[in-house]
Write a structure and sequence with these properties.
The chain contains 12 helices and 14 strands. The protein has helices at residues 6-12, 17-26, 30-43, 49-63, 65-84, 94-97, 136-139, 198-206, 211-233, 264-284, 298-306, 316-323; strands at 141-143, 152-161, 177-186, 188-197, 250-259, 292-296, 330-332, 345-351, 358-360, 366-367, 371-373, 378-387, 390-391, 399-406. Strands 5-14-8-6-7 form a 5-stranded mixed β-sheet. Strands 4, 10, 11 and 12 form a 4-stranded antiparallel β-sheet that branches. A 3-stranded mixed β-sheet has the order 1-9-13. The chain is elongated, with a radius of gyration of 44 Å.
């Protein structure tokens, strides 16, 4: 809004018809011209509101009387409020705003000199999205005997048969027989890469962001997730075996539903079902080493640890481990939860040690040399990892059992 002299302000705000008429007389008076001149000085920063008001009072009192002074003062306040962006209901006097000889249209002298951004605290720690839990590498050992460049690998098995008998004259001596079987799997390579623009990298570096390190981290994370999926599920299309699709692993679905226990009969039913999972393996391999691992879904493990016998207050997990000396602990695997044919949870029972499942890893995560294009302004880099799937040396002492868990 243009800052004009007090008389024009009174006319613009229509303080009263008598002032409008009086303005015509005041315009010809030298005092009013002095006021207008002073108002232009104020517009340039040379006169305060208080000084301008005093000059207006002199002219108004001389030509309009006491009533004119009051109306002129109100008109001036309307103008100043409009220029300062102050609401009409705010008092504009020395007591409320302490204007005194301060300019009301100037910047607030009591405001802080710090900008809002300078008062903001930024945590040094950068939060990252939580990824899935990788359990395959934690549960199973890596087999790195297959060298880089091999396109497949073969496991050979020898089976023998024979029975000794008491000798009797003329009898044929019983002979032993042997047979050999082979198991072949393939090696495949997974790849992933990143690309960076030269100038974008400069901007990120200025902002304190290590673009190359962050992208490399994401590459490793993506490859680790791919490795987890392949170790458990395999890939039928690429002829790679995983735990859940291992062709020689015994799999079965039981009818028992694991759910909240309310009676002693419910407790015994659940306990019998768990014992039968292990006993079935032990009965198929009597006399063999009975060091087994019991790996189940987190949901089933939680049920076993929380559900108690109504009378003894012992949990299902405590009673199960007490009755199975071949198993020392219970382990969890998220990939066994809800992955059955009908959404059932799984229990994987395998031998301990080197006879248990192994993840064939010919080549781990490997970065390739940096490649540049576009006259060096675009940089790309790839990484690869070789996968041979999962092998189970002692698959006869292993089993995968699916069961419904409603908990």
């Amino acid at each position: 809004m243009e800052f004009i002299d007090p008389v024009k302000s009174a006319e613009a705000l229509r303080a009263g018809r008598d002032l409008v008429e009086a303005e015509k007389d005041l315009r010809g008076v030298a005092d009013v011209r002095s006021v207008a001149s002073l108002s232009r000085m104020d517009n340039a920063g040379g006169l305060s509101f208080l000084g301008l008001r005093n000059m207006a009072h002199c002219a108004a009192e001389r030509y309009l009387g006491a009533e004119g002074v009051s109306k002129m003062d109100a008109a001036l306040r309307q103008v100043i409020k409009a220029r300062a962006g102050v609401a009409d209901d705010v008092r504009l006097d020395d007591a409320s705003l302490n204007i005194g000889s301060d300019r009301i249209d100037a910047a607030n002298p009591s405001a802080t000199i710090a900008l809002a951004r300078e008062l903001e605290y930024i945590y040094a720690e950068v939060m990252r999205e939580e990824g899935p839990i990788f359990s395959a590498r934690r549960l199973f050992a890596a087999d790195r005997r297959v060298p880089a460049g091999a396109k497949s690998y073969t496991i050979r098995r020898i089976e023998g048969s024979g029975e000794a008998k008491f000798y009797r004259a003329g009898m044929e001596v019983p002979l032993v027989g042997i047979g050999r079987d082979e198991e072949t799997a393939f090696v495949k390579h997974a790849v992933i890469g990143m690309e960076m623009d030269f100038f974008s990298a400069q901007s990120d570096a200025f902002a304190g962001i290590a673009e190359a390190a962050e992208k490399m981290r994401e590459m490793r994370e993506a490859m680790a997730e791919f490795d987890e999926q392949l170790a458990w599920n395999g890939s039928a299309a690429h002829k790679i075996n995983g735990i859940l699709n291992y062709p020689w692993l015994r799999k079965r679905l039981i009818s028992t539903t694991f759910e909240s226990i309310t009676t002693a009969a419910d407790f015994q039913t659940a306990l019998d079902a768990l014992n039968n999972m292990v006993n079935e393996i032990l009965d198929r391999n009597p006399g063999m080493s009975a060091n087994l691992r019991f790996i189940c879904s987190p949901r089933l493990h939680r049920l076993m640890a929380q559900q108690e016998h109504p009378d003894s207050q012992k949990t299902l997990k405590e009673r199960f481990l007490a009755g199975q000396p071949s198993i020392s602990s219970i382990e969890e695997a998220p990939h066994l939860q809800g992955r059955g044919p009908g959404g059932e949870d799984g229990v994987l029972i395998v031998p301990k040690g080197t006879k248990g499942p192994q993840i064939v890893s010919p080549v781990g995560f490997t970065m390739m040399p940096v490649q540049t294009t576009n006259y060096g302004f675009t940089r790309s880099q790839a990484a690869y990892q070789s996968f041979g799937g999962t092998r189970m040396p002692d698959v006869l002492r292993s089993a995968l059992i699916w069961a419904t868990v409603d908990y």
